[in-house]
Design goal:
Layout (H helix, E strand, L loop, with lengths): L1 H17 L11 E6 L4 E4 L2 E4 L5 E3 L2 E5 H7 L3 E5 L4 E6 L2 E6 L4 E4 L2 E4 L5 E2 L5 E4 H8 L2 E5 L4 E6 L5 E5 L5 H15 L5 E5 L4 H13 L4 E4 L7 H10 L3 E5 L11 E5 L1 H14 L6 E5 L7 H19 L3 E3 L3 H5 L8 H11 L5 H14 L6 E6 L3 H12 L4 E6 L6 H8 L5 E4 L2 H16 L8 E4 L4 E7 L2 E4 L3 H6 L14
Parallel strand pairs: 15-16, 15-17, 17-18, 18-19, 19-26, 20-21, 20-22, 22-23
Antiparallel strand pairs: 1-2, 1-14, 2-3, 4-5, 5-12, 6-7, 7-8, 8-9, 9-10, 11-12, 13-14, 24-27, 25-26
The structure holds beta-D-glucopyranose.
């Protein structure tokens, strides 16, 4: 009982933090043992004391109504007006009326052999087999020991598939998911695709086999992931596209994301704000062309940079395709694809480093000096920054990033990276968890906009981002409780 109560307490606390009511099945298996006439019972072999011993009536075992509900992780209700007791667990809703042989299971009438009743002691008891089986647990009766064993199998409600463990960004998501969804009493499992769409598909299939009801998928490759989303949909699973949009399938129910256009705008604005005069050398880098976000980041950045290229503030140094299009304020996806094709890092540190070095090799000393670098994220920013720092003709550089990865926050403190765009993963995880819980409890998550994925308009809820440099790093990342100060040295 104590364990059940403490679980409920944690769930209630998290409900406050996460903004939802956890009323789905307990993720862990539970075994409850009770003996007729004895106040001693066990939950997972831990002894608990009942305020009312189980009793037999009409061949059926009656047990204390709160105890069995709490032990199985159900939400319990008592309505003194109608004299009903109720249990809610996942999609199960059971209502018994005191003294009545009629009960309701998900709104359907069912006849009981023995009614729930209030004993002369004032204790309410219910038929244990009926409650347990209606909730989805199994019941065994040992006539010799007069012991009832109720077993609830572990359930996996939510499957989460993230792109790779090799980038600190996705480890942030893993950590935040672990402290949110799982602790809140949901069965959740997180798998990583390690940069491979084939592994991603296997991960999704493994989770489908394990019986998940909601899939939270951050696609490695936006288009390749459509097949995995289709499989999940065919198995009746709700699909939440996480951070990156899954493209060209109607099998996406919801999209939880940051405002990626704003990310690109914030990066570009930072560069613009640091310029003086004209003809400032501008080096452009982008994410992976297989990631829809790479286009959104670039689109946002282009929006801010293009007028400053057109008016001579910047000179593009490393992309002939971008130079060819520099007169156009708005680019088509195909035009962006041409530019990205030349400046892609593929989200890979080594590709980023090699590309930066290659760009520096062909650039003349006169086109170096005080340079401005649009780096798409923190991992690539560190590689590119290292390459520029190593070039003797580079006098100074301003370089962007995103994700507020710990190593990049340290780079910012040390003056090796200029800024990052902080995307508070706690918010994304909270929104994804809330959406998952909505689906698990038969609701529809809140949407504030839609994103077209080439097939459908996917309901979405993008969240805001914050531009961070040395001047606000402490306030944004330490004082906000995102990272402990002890993760860094030399904080301003
Ligand atoms: C994410 C970024 C991340 C990048 C590389 C993007 O889709 O939005 O936060 O840095 O992928 O993994």
């Amino acid at each position: 009982m104590r364990k059940a109560l403490s679980i409920l307490l944690v769930m209630a606390l998290l409900a406050g933090v996460l903004g939802f009511v956890p009323a789905v099945r307990a993720s862990q298996a539970v075994v409850v043992r009770m003996t007729i006439g004895s106040t001693k019972a066990t939950i997972d072999l831990k002894q608990v004391v009942l305020d009312q011993p189980p009793l037999i009536e009409n061949g059926r075992t009656l047990v204390p109504f709160r105890f069995i509900g709490e032990a199985l992780g159900a939400q319990i209700g008592w309505n003194p007006t109608n004299r009903t007791v109720s249990y809610i667990l996942g999609d199960k809703n059971i209502v018994l009326t005191i003294g009545s042989a009629t009960a309701m299971v998900n709104g359907v009438k069912t006849t009981l052999d023995v009614a729930a009743k209030i004993l002369p002691t004032g204790r309410t008891v219910v038929p244990v087999r009926f409650i347990s089986e209606s909730i989805g647990a199994k019941v065994a009766w040992n006539a010799a020991t007069r012991m009832v064993t109720v077993t609830m199998a572990a359930t996996l409600d939510v499957g989460i598939v993230l792109p790779t463990k090799d980038e600190p960004r996705w480890l942030q998501d893993q950590t935040r998911f672990n402290t949110a969804l799982k602790t809140a009493g949901y069965g959740a499992e997180i798998l990583f695709s390690q940069g491979s769409s084939a592994i991603e598909k296997q991960n999704v299939e493994a989770l489908i086999t394990k019986g998940i009801k909601v899939l939270i998928l951050c696609p490695q490759d936006a288009t390749a992931a459509a097949a995995a989303a289709d499989e999940a949909r065919a198995a009746g699973i709700k699909v939440i596209s996480y951070d990156r949009l899954i493209l060209n399938t109607s099998a996406v129910d919801y999209y939880v994301t940051f405002d990626s256009i704003s990310v690109g705008k914030a990066q570009a604005q930072y560069l613009v704000d640091k310029t003086t005069g004209t003809k400032n050398p501008l080096y452009l880098y982008a994410g992976a062309a297989s990631d829809n976000n790479a286009f959104l980041f670039f689109e946002g950045a282009w929006d801010v940079l293009q007028p400053k290229i057109a008016n001579g503030t910047f000179v593009i140094e490393n992309s002939s395709e971008a130079v060819a299009l520099q007169g156009k304020a708005t680019l088509t996806r195909a035009e962006m694809a041409k530019i990205i094709g030349q400046i892609t890092t593929n989200w890979d540190f080594t590709v980023a480093k090699n590309l930066a070095e290659a760009n520096l090799t062909v650039a003349t000393a006169g086109r170096k000096g005080n340079v401005f670098i649009l780096a798409p994220n923190d991992g690539t920013a560190r590689s590119i920054a290292d390459a520029f720092a190593a070039d003797k003709d580079v006098k100074s550089y301003v370089i962007t990033g995103q994700d507020a990865e710990i190593p990049s926050v340290q780079y910012i403190i040390d003056g090796k990276q200029s800024m990052t765009v902080f995307k508070d993963v706690r918010t994304l995880v909270k929104d994804a968890s809330a959406a998952a819980v909505d689906y698990l409890t038969g609701k529809t998550p809140e949407k504030t906009t839609t994103y077209n994925n080439g097939k459908i308009n996917v309901p979405a809820k993008p969240s805001a981002v914050i531009s961070v440099d040395k001047s606000n790093v402490k306030a944004a990342l330490i004082d906000s409780g995102y990272y402990p100060a002890s993760d860094f040295t030399g904080l301003p």
